[in-house]
């Protein structure tokens, strides 16, 4: 069924070319009308992901090459490394390193301060996740867990022990949310200060 939908989008079978062009044009930041729009390996990439408790999915299209990649997961994980490697294979690029093997990247304290603050799962929750800077090192403290240093390994992506921490920016470039990937689960927390 999804391949029929992808084919219909490719061939313009249910929307005019003008409508498709509008859908796939950036409107706010990297987002168009229902799609994230960017490029990878010099190719237009159109994608979107979604999640509900216990499930995660992602759909990535490279319309120039008639490629559609779909990943479905019942472990709150999109399998990002697997998807990255599929794209690398398709476009004859080196495979991505395992997340645990990525080297730590240094950054100035002035940039580290952007990540600090208090985050909550929901506004009504009293539980807060804290990210703070101490002696030029970023730390994260999730209640019920030991405080962990945050080590930058990609733009806005950190390692904290075995967890992956990804900070999301709004269309003005300010951090508004943090995603915590740990033990096959994902938790999203919103920055409150």
UniProtKB/TrEMBL annotation:
Keywords: Hydrolase. It comes from the Bacteria. InterPro entries: Beta-lactam/transpept-like. GO terms for molecular function: hydrolase activity. This is Beta-lactamase. It comes from Chitinophaga sancti. The lineage of its organism: Bacteria, Pseudomonadati, Bacteroidota, Chitinophagia, Chitinophagales.
């Amino acid at each position: 069924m999804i391949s029929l939908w992808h084919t219909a989008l490719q061939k313009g079978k249910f929307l005019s070319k003008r409508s498709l062009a509008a859908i796939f044009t950036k409107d706010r930041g990297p987002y168009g009308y229902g799609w994230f729009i960017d490029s990878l390996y010099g190719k237009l990439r159109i994608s979107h992901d979604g999640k509900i408790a216990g499930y995660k999915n992602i759909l990535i299209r490279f319309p120039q090459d008639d490629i559609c990649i779909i990943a479905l997961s019942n472990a709150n994980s999109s399998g990002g490394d697997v998807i990255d490697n599929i794209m690398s294979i398709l476009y004859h690029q080196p495979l991505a390193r395992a997340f645990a093997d990525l080297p730590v990247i240094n950054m100035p304290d002035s940039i580290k301060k952007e990540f600090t603050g208090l985050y909550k799962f929901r506004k009504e929750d009293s539980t807060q996740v804290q990210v703070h800077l101490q002696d030029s090192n970023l730390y994260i403290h999730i209640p019920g867990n030991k405080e962990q240093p945050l080590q930058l390994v990609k733009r806005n992506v950190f390692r904290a022990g075995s967890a992956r921490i990804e900070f999301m920016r709004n269309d003005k470039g300010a951090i508004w949310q943090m995603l915590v990937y740990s033990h096959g689960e994902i938790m999203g927390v919103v920055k409150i200060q």
